[in-house]
Write a structure and sequence with these properties.
- This protein is of the alpha/beta class.
- The protein contains ten helices and eight strands.
- Strand 5, helix 7 and strand 6 form a beta-alpha-beta unit.
């Protein structure tokens, strides 16, 4: 993407009512005004709150919002030029129950209050296979601890990935830490049992992975 295109998208994001772009200082050094208030201030209802972490173009968050109008969805990514597409689609189609937050995932506890979130989706994250990069892996111990803080006690986490490594790593970690694995499938389009929101939504990159005949994996779990 050219720099002119990126600039145009950043400017357009600023005008979107469904995009929120706090600075790091606004999140870390002050209490972010929307922390604990997303339902009231943004969605104006008491419906369940669902996050998509590393949402990319926002395709999954928008598709989920279409399917479940009685839930609120927030796509989170540090790259606003990417989720511009999802935000624009939501405005064009007048989908009121999806918003986007530009932030690093490691700051998630500063953006959401304790027990504020009902579900978390992690869709096709970078598996961060090299040892030195494990601190950025979205299902490592530190990230799971952050999720546990903002999730309700019965909150659910979904991991959908094309990385068999990420799937195996996460399953091993969850079992080792005593968390509750509700469902796991190492090839969702060949083995039956995955819920419709897992097999019924295919992102741009997922379609590419399927063309390459890469198995798509899925885990649903609770953090005990």
């Amino acid at each position: 993407m050219g720099s002119k295109n990126k600039l145009k998208r950043f400017i357009e994001n600023d005008s979107f009512s469904n995009v929120f772009q706090p600075t790091r200082d606004e999140l870390v050094k002050k209490k972010y005004p929307l922390k604990g208030q997303w339902r009231n201030e943004v969605f104006e209802n008491d419906n369940p709150l669902v996050l998509e972490l590393g949402c990319g173009k926002g395709e999954y968050a928008v598709a989920l919002a279409r399917q479940y109008p009685n839930r609120n969805f927030i796509g989170i990514d540090i790259k606003g030029a990417r989720f511009w597409r999802g935000a624009k689609t939501a405005i064009e189609e007048r989908i009121p129950n999806v918003a986007f937050l530009r932030s690093q995932i490691e700051l998630i506890e500063h953006a959401f209050a304790k027990n504020e979130v009902d579900e978390i989706w992690i869709t096709f994250p970078d598996p961060q296979i090299k040892y030195k990069r494990t601190k950025h892996r979205l299902t490592n111990i530190q990230f799971l601890s952050r999720y546990k803080t903002i999730l309700k006690p019965e909150g659910i986490v979904h991991l959908k990935t094309d990385s068999e490594y990420m799937h195996g790593y996460t399953l091993g970690l969850l079992h080792g830490m005593g968390h509750e694995v509700l469902y796991a499938n190492h090839d969702i389009y060949k083995l039956e049992g995955s819920p419709p929101e897992v097999t019924g939504i295919k992102t741009f990159y997922e379609l590419q992975y399927l063309e390459q005949q890469k198995p798509i994996t899925y885990i649903r779990f609770k953090l005990n």
